[in-house]
TrEMBL record:
Keyword annotations: Membrane, Transmembrane, Transmembrane helix
Taxon lineage: Bacteria, Pseudomonadati, Pseudomonadota, Gammaproteobacteria, Cardiobacteriales
Top-level division of the source organism's lineage: Bacteria
Transmembrane feature ranges: 411-432
Name of this chain's protein: ABC-type uncharacterized transport system
Domain ABC-type uncharacterised transport system, first and last residues per copy: 149-370
Transmembrane helix found in the keyword field: yes
């Protein structure tokens, strides 16, 4: 019996290996335990995906790589909760040269996404890239954003200091047109613009700017207006509509020192999470220097006014030079101080929106990547221009990516790693040797 078993044992091992390989290729399941989801989509993005009614097919061009096939299959799992009709189709590029040429497939592992009659090639296998392509292809309405220049405003796409180039480079996407309008060459702003941006103008053409904004806003246009501490200025038409005015001085906030900033003008702005614009934001924006915008009277009829961003209770509008020791003086106002406002009204069965901000440096190169500035910019422009699911997907910051240790804790941890663990090996060897000696002596 044992002889027969020994002869059949190699065959048994081969059968087990073959069955195991077949099961591994055709049956797979996994349990994933995560503190954060793989994809964190805004409400607007989720609604855009769920509104797709056409057939969605993802062609995957893979030849002889089962591991890569499984990776793609796992990649689309989190997407199907919003897009259950998503179908995965594995295509061997060696046997389908016509499709390879038609869709310009150049290497193994490339994807091609079909939504109805439209489609787009995808180079990277990741949930974020697939979802971003879905959002881009499903955007049906073209939007136009106009950046006004000619009155000392921040530059559009120039490399000069203070330029908003990083912002507009991120906003570039299909169905969104970005353009510049020169204030000195136009009388009225384009009626076709879905959003006009006026970034930190000076008072050199105040009357012309005021007249252009008055006509544009009367026609129901959306507006983003920002000013700054260098030459704070709020046009008369915006003062009239909003009932707001600018406080003298620069907002300083002692709460910034808790975040490691030495300059008190760097402002961690608290978010009003009750608005549609800000409810999806996870991080506070950081404003490099802001002027406070406070209420003077009620807004004009039909307009609703809401605070978007404000400073902490430890802030005030410093009217002197911000250097050395500074303190709240009698003529200054203690926080919280609003630094950004949202105004809305119903206009011909749709919503018209105006955002007024007291900082223009937030969207320049040095500050754009700080904290929640990038996400705030995406939410702001998507809301004002009404882009369908138009926010770029941002990877969420992991909660456990850094270990925060005090100096004492760091010394203890280093001592454990450098001394404790090596010594424990010698102590264990000494202990085992003692036990063996006692056993033989007994």
């Amino acid at each position: 019996m044992s002889f027969r078993f020994s002869r059949l044992f190699p065959l048994f091992c081969v059968i087990v290996l073959l069955l195991g390989g077949w099961v591994a290729l055709h049956f797979q399941s996994a349990i994933e335990w995560r503190d954060q989801p793989i994809l964190q989509l805004t409400k607007r993005q989720q609604q855009t995906l769920q509104a797709i009614k056409q057939d969605v097919v993802l062609d995957v061009y893979i030849s002889g790589n089962p591991k890569l096939v499984r990776a793609v299959q796992n990649t689309v799992i989190p997407i199907k909760q919003w897009l259950p009709q998503l179908t995965l189709k594995i295509i061997n590029p060696d046997t389908h040269p016509t499709l390879v040429q038609k869709y310009n497939i150049t290497r193994n592992g490339q994807l091609y996404l079909h939504i109805g009659d439209t489609g787009q090639k995808i180079d990277t296998i990741a949930p974020e890239t697939i979802v971003q392509t879905l959002l881009d292809l499903s955007t049906h309405t073209e939007r136009q954003i106009i950046h006004l220049q000619g009155s000392g405003e921040r530059a559009f796409l120039a490399d000069s200091g203070g330029s908003w180039r990083p912002l507009y480079e991120q906003l570039r996407q299909p169905k969104v047109s970005l353009a510049v309008a020169e204030l000195g060459k136009i009388i009225n702003l384009p009626e076709t613009a879905d959003l006009v941006v006026v970034a930190d103008p000076d008072t050199s053409k105040a009357e012309h700017l005021n007249a252009a904004l008055k006509t544009y806003l009367a026609q129901g246009g959306n507006l983003l207006y920002t000013t700054d501490t260098q030459h704070p200025f709020l046009p008369k038409i915006l003062q009239s509509i909003s009932g707001l005015h600018l406080l003298n001085g620069t907002v300083v906030d002692m709460a910034s020192q808790q975040l490691g900033f030495e300059d008190p003008r760097i402002l961690p702005a608290a978010i009003n999470e009750q608005t549609e614009l800000t409810q999806s934001l996870q991080q506070l924006p950081i404003l490099p220097g802001a002027v406070a915008i406070t209420e003077e009277r009620a807004p004009e009829k039909d307009w609703k006014r809401t605070v978007l961003l404000q400073s902490s209770p430890n802030s005030w509008n410093e009217q002197g030079e911000v250097s050395g020791h500074i303190a709240l003086d009698a003529q200054e106002t203690r926080g919280p101080l609003p630094v950004a406002w949202l105004l809305t009204r119903e206009y011909h069965a749709r919503q018209q929106s105006i955002v007024i901000m007291g900082d223009s440096d937030i969207f320049q190169q040095q500050a754009f990547g700080m904290a929640g500035n990038r996400a705030f910019a995406q939410a702001l422009f998507t809301y004002l221009a009404q882009v369908e699911g138009g926010e770029r997907l941002n990877r969420p910051n992991l909660k456990d990516q850094y270990i925060q240790l005090s100096t004492t804790q760091t010394y203890w941890w280093a001592g454990l790693q450098l001394l404790g663990l090596p010594l424990s090996i010698f102590l264990l060897g000494w202990y085992l040797r003692r036990r063996i000696e006692k056993r033989y002596q007994a």
